[in-house]
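Continuing the series of single-chain predictions for the mutant panel. This is the parent chain; the variants come on the following pages.
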Amino acid sequence: MPKMLATVVDNLVSRPATRPHPYQRREAFVRARGRIIFDISRCVFCGACALRCPAGAIRVNRAERELVFMPFQCIVCGACVEGCRRGCAQIIPQYHSPAYSKPEEYYRAPLPVREDDQL
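Parent structure:
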């Protein structure tokens, strides 16, 4: 009992061992695997990232120039980043927030502007 009392008193006067999570976020460490993002302006929709993805979290439609990414299915292994020769897929050390649903991210190539469409 005396050992336990010393531990209780020590815990009362010391700082908490954990941080208050929603109010104070931990900075990502070097080489942290957070999440995958795509720079669609550099993408040619070759499908190399989708072929390399072991989780099947990427779908590429070449005809419609569309890329569909499912971030909650992604295991952030980096295979798509290594497979993309144009550098469209990147890993950033920022985690996605928890969610009640599992949304998909849709990326479409911007439509080319023709000269006769401009004012």
